[in-house]
Structure formats: C-alpha cells, structure tokens
Amino acid sequence: MKFLSSKKGFTLIEVVLALMVMAAGLFILTNSWSGTYSRLRKTQIQVQIAALLERKVTEIEREYKGKSLESIPLEKEDNFGSELPQYSWTMSSRKLEIPDMSAMLTAQEGGADASLIQIMKLFTEHISKSIKEVKVTVIYTEGKKPITADVTIYMIDYDRPLPVPGAGGT
C-alpha cells in the first residue's frame, strides 16, 4: 500500500518568517504613528501658544492705550485660568534705549555744529521717553521642559510734546 503524502500547509520556518516580516512592519508602522502623533501634539501646543500670545498682546495694548507709559509695570505675570492651567504668561517693560548719535555726527567730514548735536540729543531723549519696549512671553509647562514664545511690542505716547529749542516747552 502506498501512502500519498500531500503537503498543503506551511512549514514552521515559513510561519516564523512570515511572523517576523509582519512584526517588523507593525513596528515600523507604530513608530511612524507615534512620531506623527508627537509632532501633531507639539504643533497643537505651538498653535495654542501663538493664539494665547496674540490674545495677551491685544489685552495689554487695550489696557494701556491712552495711558501714560509710566503706568506700564516693569514686570507682571499670571496664568490663563483654570481652563488652561499649563499655560502662563509674563510681561516685562523697559525704556527704549537709543544710542547717542553725536559721536557719529562729529565723525563726519566737516564735523557737526553744536546746535545740531544739541537737537539730536533732545530728539533722542524725547524718543526714549515716548516709546516703551514691552516683551510678552507665553509659557507651556507640561512635560520635560517648558515651551515658550515671546514677542516684543513698542508702546508709543503720541501725545508727549516734542521739545523744540526756543519754543518755550521742553
């Protein structure tokens, strides 16, 4: 009697190789998805930071519009409330520093006359008193290290009288 053997299944080696190929594919796919998710989450945080930064700058501009530059505090910080506990903001302000231009004027060929230097000093001082530099920073503090974004705006006092020599006001 003759036995006919028909092999209609897979061998153990073929099954193991197929499982290895499938496992490698799943590993690559999982890494790809987790990397994409991580980048998507980081992008969402950055978009939220940008929106909060824009909102805070608008609030600060509204709050101090029409007020004297001296009313703007040097430092201020707070958070965005219980709805966004992981986000906070800081604000710092300082007088605008403008370099002294008189050295450049006197270094020109022929020099500069004393009245021009005096006018430049008055003008520089006026601009320095009329403009305040305000830096607003939004901070996201959830995770390994904080993520920050900041913007610097310039608040201008358009009503400050221009000091004109000989005009009676300074």
Q: Could you say which overall geometry the principal axes of the C-alpha atoms support?
A: elongated
Largest sheet: 4 strands, antiparallel
Strand order of the largest sheet: 1-2-3-4
Total of DSSP H or I helical runs spanning 4+ residues: 3
Distance from N terminus to C terminus (CA atoms, Å) equals 124 Å
Give the fraction of residues assigned to helices.
Answer: 40-55%
In total, the number of strands is 4
| Integer-rounded radius of gyration | 33 Å
Number of domains: 1
Please mark out the parts with pLDDT under 50 across 5 or more consecutive residues, or reply none. none
Structural class: alpha+beta
Strand content: 15-25%
**What is the succession of H and E elements?**
HEEHHEE
Assembly type: single chain
- Mean pLDDT, all residues: 84
Characterise this structure:
The protein has a 4-stranded antiparallel sheet. It has one domain. The protein has 3 helices and 4 strands, in the order H-E-E-H-H-E-E. 45% of the residues lie in helices and 20% in strands. The mean pLDDT is 84.
Q: Helices and strands in order, then pairings?
A:
Layout: H1 12-64, E1 75-79, E2 87-95, H2 102-107, H3 114-130, E3 131-140, E4 147-156
Give a quick summary of the entry.
With 170 residues, this protein is of the alpha+beta class. The chain has three helices and four strands, in the order αββααββ.
What are its keywords?
single chain; 170 residues; alpha+beta; elongated
